[in-house]
Write a structure and sequence with these properties.
With about 140 residues, the chain is mainly alpha-helical. About 40% of the residues lie in helices and about 5% in strands.
Length: about 140
């Protein structure tokens, strides 16, 4: 819990605050926040398709819509296995991690797409790169 009534001096409390957990669809809120920030900063185009995907991601919890939002945010796409190492895709997918860690959270991983039945192709390759799953913790970034 973070009390932000005084934004200059936030107060934090937690129970097992450093324990990382699999966030399931809660992860979609992080992508929504990042999408709004990217839109405000003009890093991504404000299109009807993006707005539809953001709505479907949150209102209906569609994993397909979430995948589209992640692709727009990171400039990546799902598909067949990528060339050796997949380093470029890993770096691009970490864009939301870097944003969250720079602005408000530290011990997280938000670079994997949510799946109903499991990943395929390059998403399988990406799921083998540690950390292998999306992870959240209520701890804020260090020094905050």
């Amino acid at each position: 819990m973070i009390d932000l009534r005084d934004p200059q001096h936030p107060v934090q409390a937690s129970y097992r605050g450093e324990a990382q957990i699999y966030p399931a669809s809660v992860i979609k809120l992080f992508y929504l926040v990042a999408a709004h920030r990217w839109l405000e900063d003009k890093k991504i185009a404000d299109t009807a398709e993006l707005r539809r995907a953001m709505r479907d991601m949150i209102v209906d919890s569609y994993n397909e819509a979430t995948g589209y939002v992640i692709d727009v945010l990171t400039g990546t796409t799902s598909g067949p296995n990528a060339a050796a190492g997949n380093r470029t895709m890993v770096g691009q997918r970490n864009a939301v991690n870097r944003y969250c860690q720079r602005t408000w959270l530290h011990h997280i991983n938000v670079n994997k797409k949510p799946w109903c039945e499991g990943p395929y192709g390059r998403e399988t390759q990406l799921s083998l790169v540690p950390p292998t799953r999306n992870q959240l913790t209520p701890m804020r970034r260090r020094g905050s």
